[in-house]
Design brief:
Blueprint lengths: L1 H30 L1 E10 L5 E3 L7 E4 L3 E6 L2 E14 L6 E7 L11 E6 L2 E6 L5 E7 L2
Antiparallel strand pairs: 1-2, 1-3, 1-9, 3-4, 4-5, 5-6, 6-7, 7-8, 8-9
C-alpha cells in the first residue's frame, strides 16, 4: 500500500513538472518575434493611449533575449526568463517574465504575460499597473 501511494505521488509530481515546463515552452515560443506597442491602459485611472502603426515601441524576442526600440533607437536589451509566482491581482500561481534575470532579486519587477489573437499583453504584477498591448508584426 505504501509503495502504491509513493508511486502515485511520484507520478503526480512528474506530471506537474512536465506541465510547468511545457507551459513555459509555449509562452516562450509564442513570444519569439517582432512586436509593436499599439495601446497602453492605466488600470488606476482607466485612461488609455493609442499608438498608430510605426509610432509605438518595438520589442524583438528570441528564445533567450529581447531588444526594445523607440523611434529607431535601442532603449533596452538583455536576457529574460520565466518564473512561477503568485499573481498579486488574482492570487493564482502564474507564469511571469523577468527581464535581465542576471540582476534578479526579491524586489525585481515581474511582468504578467498574456496573448489574445495577435496581441501580446504585458502587465506589471501590481495593483494599479500599466497594461501594454503589442501587435505581432512578423
Amino acid at each position: 500500500m505504501r509503495q502504491s501511494f509513493f508511486l502515485f505521488i511520484v507520478l503526480i509530481a512528474s506530471m506537474l513538472i512536465y506541465s510547468c515546463k511545457s507551459h513555459k515552452l509555449d509562452l516562450k515560443s509564442s513570444m519569439v518575434g517582432h512586436w509593436e506597442l499599439r495601446k497602453t491602459k492605466n488600470t488606476q485611472n482607466g485612461s488609455s493611449k493609442i499608438f498608430p502603426p510605426g509610432k509605438g515601441i518595438n520589442l524583438f524576442f528570441t528564445d533567450t533575449s529581447y531588444e526594445e526600440f523607440s523611434e529607431g533607437s535601442m532603449i533596452s536589451m538583455g536576457k529574460y526568463k520565466f518564473i512561477q509566482d503568485t499573481d498579486k491581482l488574482s492570487g493564482d500561481l502564474s507564469s511571469k517574465v523577468v527581464f535581465k534575470p542576471e540582476i534578479y532579486s526579491w524586489d525585481t519587477t515581474r511582468f504578467v504575460i498574456g496573448f489574445e489573437g495577435n496581441q501580446l499583453i504585458i502587465r506589471v504584477d501590481s495593483v494599479g499597473a500599466l497594461i501594454r498591448f503589442y501587435e505581432r508584426l512578423d
